[in-house]
Amino acid sequence: MATQKLFAGAKLRDMRSRLGITQKDFAIRLNVSVPYLNQMENNNRPISTAVLLGLSEEFGFDVSELQSGDEARLIGDMKEALADPVLTGPTPALADLRLAASNAPTLARAFLDLHAAYRRTHERLASLDEALGREDSQIRSSPWEEVRDFFHYCDNYIDAVDRAAERFAAAQPKQETLEDAAVAMLEGQGIRVVEAQDGQVRNYDRKTKTLALSRYATPETRRFQLLLQMALIRQDPLLEATLDLARFQSDEARDIAKIGLANYYAGAVLMPYGQFLEAARDTRHDLEILSTRFGASLEQVAHRLSTLQRPGAKGIPFFFVRVDQAGTITKRHSATTLQFARYGGACPLWNVHKAFELPGQFLRQLAETPDGIRYFCLARDVSKSGGGWGAPMRRYAIGLGCEVKHAGALVYADHMQLNSAQAFEPIGISCRICERQSCHQRSVPPLERRLKVDLDRRDVLPYQVD
């Protein structure tokens, strides 16, 4: 079987930029000619094995960075954006999208930003009662989407925050719980930790320096919220420095991202990278065992598995998603080539939607996307109680999965027909960009295809897709 050639010129240029050296000096240290290096940086030649070795041995780079999922994400996002009906010209070929993603990723992201701005403008104009006559109706990025994309393109791994959390966990005596250590650290700052008298999960009063945690929350939630607040107080310089590098467009986005980083820190303290990676491998990624061992919820464990992308010590590339009962994706991340729909609902054939029908059970699925890539998918419902009678119950479903080539490392994939093509269900990203010509669950026609309508014939769908 021939080895796939590696074209990653933009990332090679980025590595050289990080070193702050000229192309000539870079070529000398890699023992190649300047013209040859120039061709690799412009994707006219694949990156050679000798250069890969030089990057690792001479500069200490993790060459797996050259094969990260940025290109696949950009291709998926551009493909969805180009399916918008406003773009009436011919759809670029997949080869052209690959060239744009690999040779000009900054330009590709600028195109996505422009398309996102158009959609926001269109949605604003569709609600005239909200848009007209307002002096503050400026067009700007949705803070939530901006933060989501920040984590999305960081592979959901923030190295400085992750390592700081790991150091904190390692510094605690074995006889002391992380919860006790966090309380002691906060008390050392003059902060009292008390039980909340109302329904709030967490409330920190800066004036009285009092942290109130819900008495009705589960132990996992209380522990997590305690560590989150500790991160906001003790790790503020680190969080602010990380936010400075992200350059968010609004204060709202920066604040949302700060909460996200504090959440990340809390999860990384509960499940320190090295320990958790080893335990995940030893237990074959059994979520329930990992949940018990690390005192975390199933959702926290599943999300943490999707962050194990540390250069030089990577875990299985998982995708992780959380979906509400309306099918809206409320959390998403993919370290795989599988991409989630940025607009509209996800594919209804995906097993994560069925989890609400079978509460308390893990659902397994073998699935194949239109590009021919096969995945193992795991889904489970998650209920979050309000803490008392009459309090609202929040229900979600979480999905976790990986390419089927990694399925042997998951206990959930045992006894499944991993080598049978017939065992894989056809799924897509979303109906509007799905390339499948026939699907009994299609909700809208694909935007990239012509339709045939036969007045004298009705099949599962009222039209045929060319």
Please outline what is shown here.
The chain is an alpha+beta fold and 466 residues long.
Record keyword descriptors for this entry.
six-stranded mixed β-sheet, 466 residues, alpha+beta, single chain, Arc Repressor Mutant, subunit A
Distance between the termini: 34 Å
Order of helices and strands: HHHHHHHHHHHEEEHHHHHHEEEEEEEEEE
Task: Please give the CATH architecture of the domain at 159-270.
Answer: Orthogonal Bundle
Write down the CATH topology of the domain at 159-270: Arc Repressor Mutant, subunit A
Please report which band the strand proportion falls in: under 5%, 5-15%, 15-25%, 25-35%, 35-45% or over 45%.
5-15%
Task: Note the total helix count.
Answer: 17
For the CA atoms, what is the radius of gyration?
24 Å
How would you describe the shape? globular
Helical fraction equals 40-55%
Mean pLDDT: 83
Overall structural class, as computed from helix and strand content, comes to alpha+beta
Q: Characterize the main sheet.
A: 6 strands, mixed
Top-tier CATH class of the domain at 159-270: Mainly Alpha
Strand order of the largest sheet: 7-6-10-9-8-11
Give structural notes.
By secondary structure, this protein is an alpha+beta fold. Among the domains are: 9-67, 434 Repressor (Amino-terminal Domain); 159-270, Arc Repressor Mutant, subunit A (Orthogonal Bundle), CATH 1.10.10; 436-466, no CATH class. Helix content is 42%, strand content 14%. It has 17 helices and 13 strands. It has helices spanning 9-19, 23-30, 34-41, 49-59, 70-82, 94-103, 105-126, 128-131, 143-153, 159-170, 178-188, 219-234, 236-246, 251-270, 273-282, 287-294, 298-305; strands spanning 192-196, 202-205, 210-214, 309-310, 313-314, 319-324, 329-334, 363-368, 374-384, 394-403, 425-426, 451-452, 464-465. It has a six-stranded mixed beta sheet. α9 (143-153) packs across α14 (251-270). The longest helix is centred in the N-terminal third of the chain and has 22 residues, at 105-126. It starts with 8 loop residues before the first helix and ends with a strand. The relative contact order is 0.08.
